[in-house]
Amino acid sequence: MSQKSEQRVIVCNTYSKPFIGGIESSLFYISNSLIEDGEDVIILASDRTPSGVRAESGMEEGVWVERFVHPNRIWLLFEPLILVFTFWRYLKKKKWHKETRVICRSHLMVMSFLLYGMKNIVYVVPSIVERSDTHVSHVLTGLDRFKDLIIRHIVVRQHIFIQNRVLKKSPFLMVLSRLMQNEVASIVSRDDISMCPPGVDHSRFFPSKTVRQDIRKRLGIEKRFVYLCVGRVVSIKCFPDILHALNLMSPCIREKISVLIVGDGLEYNDLKRMVRQFKLDGCVHLLGASQRPEDYYKAADCFLMTSICEPFGQTITESLASGIPVIAYKGEGVVTASEDILEDGYNGFFCTRDTMSLKETMLSVQDMSKAAFQEVKQHCVASSYSYSWAHFAKACLDLVSKG
Q1: Cα–Cα distance measured from residue 294 to residue 318, given in angstroms and rounded to the nearest whole number
Q2: Where along the chain do its domains lie?
Q3: What is the pLDDT of residues 154-210, one digit of tens each?
Q4: Before 71, cis peptide (omega within 30)?
Q5: 348 and 327 in contact (C-beta within 8 Å)?
Q6: Are 102 and 118 in contact (CB under 8 A)?
Q7: What percent of the chain is modeled with pLDDT above 70?
Q8: When comparing pLDDT for 285 and 19, which is higher?
Q9: Strand partners, 108
């Protein structure tokens, strides 16, 4: 089908795989769900990759991925504005049909679509830029730190301006949680902010004794109670809280625990130093980013959700599908959607953002009887089936068809 067809569905974000993240993966989940439903779908993303090697257009995981040229990063200070212009110019060159249905997770690309005159755009709001983490790396010092701070301030202000315009002008808005619905409503006066939770891939995330044994054997943690954390190592994830909680435990208790942290980010080296400082090398495993995080879910007993700002919490539904309960923060200073997903004592456990509270909750979970813990694990898997990518994809297109 030609690019001019109004029947085609474009699923898009500024970046796609091989970048690792929930948004990048969601492009393929949404696309494949729509393809199974008989839609003609392509993914549209820039050609930028983590390695710096430009990605080519082509078939990936059963979906055609169309790439546009990402602007050169020498214009970093004005990258958001330049990317909007670059993508708008690409749309004009390709002459996409203006009635084409679009499901987009990038406010920058939505702005380009709007300037081009596209009408059937569903903006799936991933987060509110004003609430996002703009932390400056502790590794930088002196002039470099000052430059980084200035660049971040200027770039973030551009993102905020563009996103706020998009929230006002996008024909359709979709958010993932009540928290996001309230946050968007605090910025724009609209009564048409739709909500639908995202799905979870049950073909990737499921309990597996074989994988569990293999990973535990490889890491030398066969007989330990294993906690898992997955995400960017940045300040809002509060991974240091876990180290402080472990530091409050006696050495004999720590010998029975392993914490796996899967991910990288600005604070990765800081976290590594804390592990050495607290002498936690024997129980904390910093594993970096992984293309197969699902293997670590299968190896774990419990997930630690210590983030204090999370629009939805994809890792929570992935944990539930993998049959592992979640310990999450709630209360003062915590702005997450965890309480929309978890029920205390049923498929997860809550504590306040306090290292003593976190420590006591971790120990109480470990002390549960085998039968009680197994029942919670069964509840996890059962509750995960409330989250479907097929349902989410349909909900997005229904906004356009009923629009």
Answers
A1: 8
A2: 9-199+388-401, 209-384
A3: 888 899 999 999 999 999 999 999 999 999 999 999 999 999 999 999 999 999 999
A4: no
A5: yes
A6: yes
A7: 93
A8: 285
A9: none
Give pLDDT, residue 225.
Answer: 98
Q: Which two tokens stand for residue 87?
A: 């993508």
| DSSP annotation of 189 | -
Spatial separation of the C-alpha atoms in residues 108 and 157, rounded to whole Å: 13
Q: Alpha-carbon distance 379 to 314, whole Å? A: 18
Structure tokens at 159: 């993102």
What is the token pair recorded at 69?
A: 């040229």
**HSE of 362 in the Cβ direction (CA atoms, 13 Å)?**
30
197 near 387, Cβ under 8 Å? yes
3-state secondary structure of 93: helix
Per-residue model confidence (pLDDT) at position 375: 98
**Per-residue pLDDT reduced to its tens digit, 64-119:** 999 999 988 666 788 899 999 999 999 999 999 999 999 999 999 999 999 999 99
Which of the following CATH numbers is that of domain 9-199+388-401: 3.65.10.10, 3.40.50.2000, 3.20.20.60, 3.20.20.70?
3.40.50.2000
Task: Give the CATH superfamily of 209-384.
Answer: Glycogen Phosphorylase B; (3.40.50.2000)
pLDDT tens profile 345-354: 999 999 999 9
- Strand-strand pairing, 41-46 and 63-68: parallel
Give the C-alpha separation, 357 to 165, whole Å.
41
Q: CA–CA separation, 203 vs 3, rounded Å? A: 32
Q: Is the fold of 9-199+388-401 the same as that of 209-384? A: yes
Which residues, at least 6 apart from 51, have a Cβ–Cβ distance to it below 8 Å? Answer: 18
Q: Which amino acid is at 59?
A: M
Nearest Cα neighbor of 45 from 10, 74, 92 is 10
Report the predicted TM-score, pTM, of the whole model to 2 decimal places: 0.89
**What are the strands of the beta sheet with 172-175, ordered from one edge?**
58-60, 63-68, 41-46, 9-12, 101-104, 120-124, 172-175, 193-195
The mean predicted confidence, pLDDT, of the chain is 92
Amino acid letter, residue 238 = C
